[in-house]
Amino acid sequence: MKLFILGWLVIYSVFLHVTHAEAQAQNEQRLPEPLIQNVSGRDTVSLDGQWTYIIDPYENGYYNHRYEPHTHGYFKNAKMTSPSQLLEYNFDTADKITVPGDWNTQEDHLYLYEGTVWYNKNFTFKKQRDQNYLLYFGAVNYKAIVYVNGNKVGEHEGGFTSFNFDITQHLKDGDNFVTVKVDNRRERDQVPTVNTDWWNYGGITRSVSIVSVPQSYLSDYRIQLSPDKGNTIKGTIVLAGPADHKGNVAISIPELGVRETVKVNKSSTTTFSFTANPALWSPDTPKLYDVEISYNGETIHDRIGFRTIETQGEDILLNGQSIFLKGISIHEESPLTSGRAWSEEDARTLLQCAKELGCNFVRLAHYPHNEHMLRVADEMGLMVWSEIPVYWTVLFDNQMVYRKAEQQLAEMIHRDINRASVIMWSMANETPSTDARLTFISSLIKQARQLDSTRLITAAMDTQSSTKNGILIDDPLASEVDIIGVNSYCGWYVSEASKCSGLKWESKYQKPIIMSELGAGALQGLHGESNERWTEEFQASVYIHNLEMVDNMSALRGLSPWILKDFRSPRRPLKHIQDFWNRKGLVSEKGIRKKAWYVLRDYYETK
Ligand code: GCB
What region does 21 belong to: left with phi over 0, alpha with psi -120 to 50, or beta? Predict the structure, then answer.
């Protein structure tokens, strides 16, 4: 009997092993190809518009087929194990949804939905000989698994960064279909983790396109002013593709009389430098140059500004001159629809609003925003703080989580490396001061400096100590960054507004400080005394006293109060006041200015 049981145990464990191996092969993660630079300056076919979708809270379309590698999901025409599944889940009868766009604000029944939704798009295509095709997503929140004509082409995790897959072998002349499994469930081991103060908008939230490139193609480039030598432009070009790299890359900047040729060799990365005297980019003169880069039959157009940014003691120097950052924090939420912002019009409206406030700086919180925001900021002359969602309590002692954060950091830096507006990369927001967190964020900083040594590093911290007279900045993380970001809610979460003006701030570190958050909530249109919470007067009073307070901080070189516009947040349920909106906006969700708007605008006029 004992032998019999043992025999079964052996057989069962072999079975388990095989099943596990099959599942692993099946789930094999195909990671995106290296991110392609400047999609909007290339030859593309847009897949934006109407897609069909199926809501799948139980992941039926995925897990029912999890052991058959080629029959994932609900695709029409795919070989299915169960015909009944095919009948029930045919995309032909499915409803339509717009891409780009979050699902929450498009369909009432998806307002609070968190889970899987399958997206499908049918399209016709004509392939050109000797071209390669990359399927590019601006962003999908949070996890995407992508199929072309029923074949899995890859997956991506992280809701705010771009990714692309080479789909050349799966794309056909004539009818094609792309299917995407989108899952926005919050999990403890994600970046961000389960707890945030913003809406978890799900869906294909940014544009989708097919980019056509030659067999050997220019996948990435960076062109910028050398930080140490004023009249030198330097850069890197990165080639990719199945064919051999040979020939020249031509770089021209007609307005500067630049026509350079860079010889490529078999290796994929080449650096170059040349002399030029560009007019420098700054908020007052946001000069951008047309840049043309050609290689192997492809010509890419870009508009690039040239400037330097550095710190010296407690100063931030833009083009060698000390500058004060008059900023505001912004969430990527549309001023037009109150859903996730993605369009150029959204970007123009949000950033124009910041300009009218008197800003020369914006903090794009709390994750990388869509590319329009950076390109419009370049054009309008707004300096940018760009950040990854290492927010609150991500699992700092988990290596997988670290890799996720590092991946998002690399994707953020890659995409926006040529934007003059971006002057600093932020690693984290309000993280608890522990050893694990210090190791985690210090490693991110090291990585960021390796990827881009030309920009400043920051992090927003709320971990200061109290002293007899006020507050001491002593978080060890502050010693790792170039600019110390401080979030402080004097008069709202702590203390009373009138007591804030007298608070004395000290810092252990000789570095520039940005007050990266301050603020208070107010329901636009609600009026009362300045000590009545939720009134516009209360919010204005908090601003008045906090601005007096920051004026006494000797190392203060900028601020980005919280926040431009009221934004949706499930953490804000207070009936008739919040109704799931964080009310700390200087304008309401409809764009109506509150009293505090004018307080900050007047303050910036004097700066
Ligand atoms: C913070 C967070 C921000 C919140 C804000 C608030 O400190 O960084 O994400 O939305 O406070 O309104 O409480």
Answer: alpha
Dihedral angle computed from the Cα positions of residues 123, 129, 131 and 133, in that order, rounded to the nearest 10 degrees: 20
Cβ 589 under 6 angstroms from ligand 1:
no
Q: Which amino acid belongs to residue 213? A: V
Extended strands (E) in 390-517: 422-429, 456-461, 465-466, 470-473, 483-487, 504-507, 513-517
Mutational pocket test of ligand 1: of 562, 567, 572, the residue with most ligand atoms within 8 Å of the beta carbon: 562
What is the residue-averaged pLDDT of the chain? 91
**For position 275, what pLDDT does the model report?**
95
Is 413 buried (19+), middle (13-18) or exposed (0-12) by CB count in 10 A? buried
Does the pLDDT at position 506 exceed 80? yes
Alpha carbons 315 and 557: distance in angstroms, whole number: 7
Q: Which CATH number fits domain 26-213: 3.90.180.10, 2.40.128.110, 2.60.120.260, 3.40.367.20?
A: 2.60.120.260
What is the CATH number assigned to the segment(s) 310-605?
Answer: 3.20.20.80
Q: Which fold has domain 217-306?
A: Immunoglobulin-like (2.60.40)
Share of the chain above pLDDT 90, in %: 84
For residues 589, 333, 381, 233, the Cα torsion angle rounded to the nearest 10 degrees is 170
Confirm or reject: Cβ of 584 under 6 Å from ligand 1: yes
Q: Which residue has the tokens 């994929």?
A: 268
Whether 566 is in the pocket of ligand 1, judged by its Cβ within 6 Å, is no
- Give the contacts of 418 (CB within 8 A, at least 6 positions apart): 37, 38, 221, 222, 223, 224, 302, 304
Decide: 582 in ligand 1 pocket, CB within 6 A: yes
pTM recorded for the entire structure: 0.93
